[in-house]
Amino acid sequence: MLARLRALIVKELLVVLRDPRSRFILVGPPLVQLVVFAFAATLEVKNVDLVVLNRDEGPSGIELVHRIEGSPTFRTVVAVHDHRALQRAIDQQQAIGAVHIGPTFSQDLLAGRPANVQFVLDGRRSNAAQIVNGYLSEIVNTYVADQNERSHRVASTPRVIPRNWFNPNLTFTWFTVPGLVAIVAQLIGLIVTALSVARERELGTFDQLMVSPLRTREILLGKLIPPMMIGLAHITLYVLATIVIFGVPLRGSLLLLYGSAFFFLAAVAGIGLFISSLSATQQQAILGAFLFLAPATLLSGFATPIENMPSWLQPITVINPLRYFLVVTRGVFLKAMPFAEVARETLPLAFIAVVTLTVAAWLFRRRTE
Amino acid sequence: MTPSPSERPYSVRARGRRVVALIRKEVRQIFRDPSSILIAFVLPLILLFLFGYGVSLDTTRTRIGVAIERPTPSARGLLAAFQASPYFEVRVAADRRELEQPLTLGELRGIVVIPATFDADLWKRSVAPAVQVIVDGSDPNTAALVQGYAQGVVAVWARARALEAGRATGASGSEERFWFNPELSSRFFLVPGSIAIVMALVGTLLTSLVVAREWERGTMEALMATPVTAVELLLGKIIPYFVLGLASMSLCALVAVLLFDVPFRGSVLALYAISSAFLLPALGQGLLISAATKNQFLASQLALLSAFLPTFLLSGFLFEISSMPRVIQWITNVVPGRWLIPSLQTVFVAGDIWPLFLRDLGMMTLFGAVFLALSVRTTKKRVA
Predict the structure, then answer these.
(1) How far is A296 from chain B (nearest CA, A)?
(2) Which end of chain A is least crowded, N or C, by CB within 10 Å?
């Protein structure tokens, strides 16, 4: 049995690696995803364009504007002189927001009254607007506190000391790139498996395979093992890129990562075989894979946290393999996740793998008879 | 469809008739092929649901821990302020070490440490009392939001306390206004943005698949052997998929407004003008890909890579373009979706702002002209 299985695995690997189209699939999309995702997929807000309407006649307004200009977050700070210009700049998205300093700002500060500063932000980009609002309030609060100190009114506001664990500078690539390891493993594991049976069926070689001395179980294993090997190879490349190119610290154990990756790939390959046995052509297999990939990626916590989803939707994510493996890749890289925790996330993966592979095997048999 | 002898084969009427016949053929194919219906109507609804429900940047009730090392009155007051905040769901502990493991596991997003000396420090003039906020930096966006909210809670608590004590400190009275979207619902920009992705899928992926199939099967060459010219052939493809693209956009827009409560403050005219202008480069790209590859498999991969991914990642739909590295910022300029997103979000959430629309319409039409011209050239060359 082993010899037959080995022959089948070698044949599968050759089919994938020799066909230029398959080679393209193995290299093109993962590479583009790595480059574009790693650099472009950032929720950070930098290089912000701002307008300022300063109607204060005293010195404090000008000082505050200088403070804002001095902050590295802001790329351009343009002065406008009336409300219409302010509105136009925001409407046409020349600036994400505006700072409006009221006419009595300096006087109010001197008198110890609440000083009048208004931020107007573009709600069309609500996430960025919220973050810019945070930056601006911090600048104004610090400025006002400094002024108070200067005039000996000691502010009683307690200081807040921020500490960012696992990622002290909140570097966004530390978040995205370990996640990409999981995303690419999913993409490759799924596409290669989904295409394999569909390709044989399209070419008519599937029937030849069925009349060969190979048993159904062996064919199934032969279709399963090569995509997992290719998936592990991609994981290795991505792990190297994560460490060497992006400088993400590897704090946990690679052994645990690979152990978990094995079950993740098995689960994904099961889904791929499932799609494969349902499709008659490669085209359908690709569409089917896409139909699975889009929701699986968006509902995994890769880009936005699962806990932000509505409460009726969160339970659905428990059947999503990516959800568990993402916790493992991020955890192993940044948090030195211990064995017990990795096991807790891997157990559902093993369970999903058993279910999807059983269903795939059943479909496979039914289709062949 | 034999032309009457009195009609010359390249008169306007004959051309028109041939294009109409081609369109009729294409429409029949669309309705018979399950994969076109899948891409044009089922996939858009799935994507819209995912972006409407599944993807959300609105952190509501983040789970944090508060370590209160000595339950003095002020410390308890600050704790109550955290518990009353709509942003947090608080787990209380006496020691921060109890909360560290949940933070590592991702069960908590942050820990607020109110030190034992907090009360004493509040009354000292020399040292400012300090509150430590530890967050899980492995998710930087949530981490930054938790830091921001925690700072807000402490500041509001301190101000209320000062007012109670009759000491009006010169607190800053800064207030903020979020135009167009005062509740800061991320759905307002995610749902219109997903309509852009839908149009990219219908315009580029579906068109490239269908036309590549004709090349693969040789029916394209068969059509070329008839009096049909390359331009007529392309028109016969562009018009039906253009209409199909507008149809799935309309479906999505209705769902966005009726189901997801996204406001529609602009005009229907502007919405259709913007969408039409985007469909030109999208269709042109699809035709170009199919004529260049003549292979369904390659065409679908290229369409996903060159239309779906850029519209998703490089259009400013989810990720701010200004935060990207300079080279990538420059690349975004040649992504048609980058010129669609601002107008599309504006027509839904803000209203008709024509100076913005005109800029985007101009850019998209320009890209459309380039792609269509290239696809005409490629189609002609391929046949010769």
Answers:
(1) 10
(2) C
Dihedral sign (CA B206, B207, B213, B214): positive
Dihedral, CA of residue A64, residue A65, residue A71 and residue A74, to nearest 10: 150
Give the SS3 label for residue B176. strand
Q: Identify the residue whose tokens are 């000391």.
A: A161
- Tens digits of residue pLDDT in A158-178: 777 888 889 888 888 899 899
Backbone angles phi, psi at A16, to 5 degrees: -70, -40
pLDDT tens digits for range B90-112? 999 989 889 988 888 888 999 99
Which of A304, A126, A302 lies closest to B187, judged by CA? Answer: A126
What strands lie across the sheet with B88-93, from one edge to the other? A159-165, B130-136, B110-114, B62-68, B88-93
Lowest mean pLDDT among A31-35, A81-85, B173-177: B173-177
Domains of chain B: 12-55+185-383 (no CATH), 62-164 (3.40.1710.10)
CA distance A224 to A193: 7
pTM of the predicted protein model: 0.83
Determine, for residues B349 and A124 on separate chains, whether the beta-carbon distance falls below 8 Å. Answer: yes
> Is the ipTM above a cut-off of 0.85?
no
Cβ within 8 Å, pair B158-A157:
yes
CB B138 within 8 A of CB A167: yes
Q: Is B323 on the interface with A (CB under 8 A)?
A: yes
In terms of DSSP H, where are the helices of chain B? 12-32, 34-37, 43-49, 73-84, 97-105, 118-123, 140-164, 187-200, 207-217, 219-224, 230-258, 268-293, 296-303, 309-313, 326-332, 336-349, 354-383
The number of beta carbons lying within 10 Å of the beta carbon of residue B231 is 14
Copy the structure tokens of residue A318.
């428990």
- Domains of chain A, first to last: 2-41+170-368 (no CATH), 48-150 (3.40.1710.10)
- The three-class DSSP label of residue B135 is strand
Residue B39 and residue A287: Cβ atoms within 8 Å?
yes
pLDDT digits (tens, 9 = 90+) for A281-302: 777 888 888 889 888 988 998 8
Q: Is A78 helix (H, G, I), strand (E, B) or coil?
A: strand
Contact A313, A299 (CB under 8 A): yes
Say if A362 is an interface residue toward chain B (CB within 8 Å).
no
Three-class secondary structure of residue A122 per DSSP: strand
Angle at B162 between CA A141 and CA A158, to 5 degrees: 50
